[in-house]
Design a protein that fits this description.
The chain is mainly α. It has a domain at 1-58: Multidrug-efflux Transporter Regulator, Chain: A, Domain 2. Helix content is 63%, strand content 3%. The protein is built from 7 helices and 2 strands. A two-stranded antiparallel sheet has the order 1-2. The protein is elongated and about 75 Å long. It starts with a helix and ends with a helix.
Length: 153
């Protein structure tokens, strides 16, 4: 496939594919009679892995290290250690992000529950600390989500 097709299939720009080629991250399998770069399914997979690793926050230098860790002659213990270190660091970062996102989700869920009850409230003034102070939906809670406290204040 030509560069435009592989770019489209990966969601990358043609410029990005060319840049990755300049960095040695991917190489065309050959050229057409008209001089166009030709890429294989193997290159498509490689570009998808590059995109995945970028999504993990790896720099292009780190991605290059990963992709070049196992050369055609095979990897060595240092290659294994490098890959292990990089992946452990990323796993830790991903777990931290998941924890933070989970906390965000919990807070948003609590606020949505409160706002759902506010929709059926018969008061004239809503989302006011004074008028909502005795609301059964708020008083019965041990604590209000911080974002909701700020909204009420």
């Amino acid at each position: 496939m030509q560069i435009g097709e592989i770019a489209r299939k990966t969601g990358m720009s043609v410029r990005a594919v060319r840049y990755y080629e300049e960095l040695g991250l991917v190489q065309p399998d050959g050229y057409s009679s008209g001089g166009f770069r030709l890429y294989s399914e193997k290159n498509l997979k490689r570009l998808r892995v590059i995109d995945f690793l970028k999504g993990l926050g790896l720099s292009l230098a780190e991605i290059r290290d990963i992709l070049l860790a196992k050369k055609s002659s095979g990897g060595n213990l240092e290659s294994v250690r490098t890959l292990f270190r990089i992946y452990c660091e990323r796993l830790s970062l991903v777990e931290t992000k998941i924890k933070a996102l989970s906390q965000m989700r919990d807070e948003i869920e609590q606020v949505v529950t409160i706002l759902r009850s506010c929709q059926s409230c018969g008061r004239d003034v809503l989302l006011d600390a004074k008028s909502c102070a005795d609301c059964a939906n708020l008083v019965s809670r041990e604590s209000l989500p911080e974002t909701f406290e700020v909204i009420l204040s």
